[in-house]
Amino acid sequence: MADTAKKLSIICFSGDFDKALAAMVLATGGKAFDYDVNLFFTFWGLNILKKKKGRRPGSGSFLQKAFNVMMGGRNNLPLSKFNFAGLGPELMKMIMKSKKIKDVEGMLQDTIALGAKIYACEMAMNVMGVKKEDLIDEVTDIVGVATFIADAEGGQVLFI
Amino acid sequence: MADTAKKLSIICFSGDFDKALAAMVLATGGKAFDYDVNLFFTFWGLNILKKKKGRRPGSGSFLQKAFNVMMGGRNNLPLSKFNFAGLGPELMKMIMKSKKIKDVEGMLQDTIALGAKIYACEMAMNVMGVKKEDLIDEVTDIVGVATFIADAEGGQVLFI
Amino acid sequence: MADTAKKLSIICFSGDFDKALAAMVLATGGKAFDYDVNLFFTFWGLNILKKKKGRRPGSGSFLQKAFNVMMGGRNNLPLSKFNFAGLGPELMKMIMKSKKIKDVEGMLQDTIALGAKIYACEMAMNVMGVKKEDLIDEVTDIVGVATFIADAEGGQVLFI
């Protein structure tokens, strides 16, 4: 079954700039090779899908708001190494811009345009106080782990 | 071969609370869909299997004891982000409790009850001074990488 | 297709000592079971392939040099936990030596000797100012994500 091999499902757990970039490079690369690509954003990875780009208190309980502010938004994604309070990712973005390499936001747009499915994890949204309206409109669906496992069946899976 | 696709093997490398939770959610989700699920706990992930829940010196050489105390136990699993000396995971546990979502310990019990295989990595135990008697009784076996690779053959694999 | 299952492709994204070790253990284990093994080193993982073992400014722009020095070399790989400014990995190396377990460097040599393919990621080298001549001679090729995806097709994939 050639089909079996041509499916790539990525759990985007990390909200780190560098790991999000790696996930998007793999997703667009997969689509270029006619893979079905499913991206399942959970925990800190939900940050990548936030409509508002900076920090904001969000909705929910006090604790959930606290988490939301700490998490920041799409413009605050840290590096997994050498973050230096946000200086590291800015350095990396400057280098990438000078090399004409797209950053996470541009890559996410490409990923969506190429037809990858963008899922947000219901349980993590619940724990972290992230609402549907906080996320970009391009989210295919808000789903549980069951949907991810069913969608990923028979293909390759990555946890990033 | 439908069977080929219905096997999920997870290397639980991280001892972070949030990543351990993700591993358990995937493991229980997999079992719910009739997957064979193998969990292979190695390095910091061994913490999740510790019988004693807090910090303790353990056995072994001085260096191994030092590692063991630093690692802590099941009640000291840190968050991969915003740990704040243990405050972060406590906040998350409080939110989860209020939402009636099980935490790592509850999920691990479910995972075991559903019949996932729980392997502990022999090499990592050796390096980190963790003994068989330090681990919960439900550990299926203490094995090397060869057993993991043989068990994982033909299925999906995740490194968490 | 038995062949389908006998291929393991690992994205070595992390430059952490402990994660690099896990990747090498899996790679050598895979080769021992007659798997095709492809290692794709990207981002911080490029450090593992550096010819010079310590910190050095490298070539490229000022920003790239800054990254290169921060990244360090093969002798500066940090632990993902308890690094303590480099003390953690030294402790772990001492324990491993006393147990006659090979460290990352020894394991990498074994991995290469067993015939695993060693790829370096072109985009990450570009962003981080790492040149071909900075890397060990055993690198099979410098490639893009397309090559990785093509090589990984139909096999198991891990992101470490």
Distance between the termini of chain A: 27 Å
The major pleated sheet of chain A works out as:
5 strands, parallel
- Neighbour order of strands in the largest sheet of chain A: 4-3-2-1-5
The CATH class of chain A is identified as Alpha Beta
Structural class by SSE content of chain A: alpha/beta
CATH superfamily of chain A: DsrEFH-like
Q: Specify the number of helices of chain A.
A: 7
Low-confidence stretches of chain A: none
Q: Please, how many domains of chain A?
A: 1
Largest interface by residue count? A-B, 34 and 29 residues
* Structural shape of chain A: globular
What is the oligomeric state here? homotrimer
Number of strands of chain A: 5
Query: Would you give the CATH topology of chain A?
Result: Hypothetical Protein Ychn, Chain: A
Describe the structure.
The structure is a homotrimer of 160-residue chains. Chain A is an alpha/beta fold and 160 residues long. Chain A has one domain: 3-Layer(aba) Sandwich (Hypothetical Protein Ychn, Chain: A). Helices cover 42% and strands 15% of the residues of chain A. The first copy, chain A, has 7 helices and 5 strands. In chain A, strands 4-3-2-1-5 form a 5-stranded parallel sheet, sandwiched between helices. In chain A, β3, α6 and β4 form a beta-alpha-beta unit. In chain A, α2 runs parallel beside α5. Chain A is globular, with a radius of gyration of 16 Å. The model of chain A has no long low-confidence stretch (mean pLDDT 86). Chains in contact: A-B, A-C, B-C. At the A-B interface, α3, α6, α7 and β5 of A face α2, α4 and β5 of B.
